[in-house]
Amino acid sequence: MSNNTKTILALLTGAFAGTALGIFFASGKGAKMMGKLSKSVEDTTDTLEEKGKDTMSDFKEKLYQKVSQDHNGTGHDKFKKNKQHS
To answer: What's this model's pTM, rounded to 2 decimal places?
Structure first.
């Protein structure tokens, strides 16, 4: 990419960013957009947090079942056999 192309790309990027910031902060519509964006980010954060809790709960349950099986002897023999081969 030539220096002229990089300069033009930088100017266009700066103009776009300046326009976007101007819209967000200068008008009532921008404030409304910022409110919607904030609400959207908050909702997404809440959703991710809930999914993370569900995933951890599922993981703990599966781990508990696996440890219980191994403790009862169903998986323990497999571990001993694999350990002897190493």
So the answer is: 0.42
